Amino acid sequence: MFIKEVMFHIHLIMAISWIGGSVFMFVLGITLRDKKAQQEVYPHIGPIFGWFEVVALVALLISGFYLGGYYNLFEVLMHPNGSKISDAITKKAILVAILTVATILHFVIAYKTNGKERTKLENFFSRGSSMLIFFLNLFVMHYAIVLRDIL
Ligand code: HEM
To answer: Do 130 and 82 meet the contact criterion of CB atoms below 8 Å apart?
Structure first.
């Protein structure tokens, strides 16, 4: 019970950090339009933000897997039964899987191209994945709340 409470607190703090970080970067992306300012700001905050988000996501996944195990949700995930909880965990798991792949893609491009000119394709995948991560987060939050309401 104590470990579960600790894991849940970690899960919540990391969810706040992860989503808060992505909302802040979204606002920065919209408001910081000046090319010169971007070239000065991004090379510095990019790597710090990147590692901050990686740590938050890894901690979210570890604590999430623990909580999923605690509530026997993987059993439900493997054998969906049409209940509200089965629906919520299935949707949350699918969204988190897509989110994780999009984050890896975004991180790899950002890491390879930080401080350099990007190709059109790199720009497309980098911007596309960050938009996707931002919007998926809102839905993950929704299903997390639905799940917690039932548990
Ligand atoms: C990007 C990844 C994730 C985010 C942003 C996230 C977010 C959240 C949030 C905000 C809550 C609290 C909801 C509330 O208090 O109303 C929560 C609860 C929960 N999450 Fe996640 N989560 C993530 C990944 C996962 C994963 C991978 C699993 C496991 C498959 C998981 C399992 C759970 C469970 C079981 C709860 C309820 C815990 C309880 O009521 O004690 N989460 N999540």
So the answer is: no
The beta-strand segments (E) located in 8-150 are none
Provide the number of structural domains found in the chain: 1
Q: Are 63 and 12 in contact (CB under 8 A)?
A: no
From atom 25 of ligand 1, which residue's Cα is the shortest distance away?
Answer: 64
What number does the ligand 1 atom closest to the CA of 93 have?
30
Please tell me the residue having the least CA distance from ligand 1 atom 26.
64
Q: Give pLDDT tens digits along the chain (151 positions).
A: 899 999 999 999 999 999 999 899 889 988 999 989 988 998 899 899 999 999 999 999 999 999 999 999 999 999 999 999 999 999 999 999 999 999 999 999 988 887 778 899 999 999 899 999 999 999 999 999 999 999 9
Cα 64 to middle of ligand 1, angstroms: 6
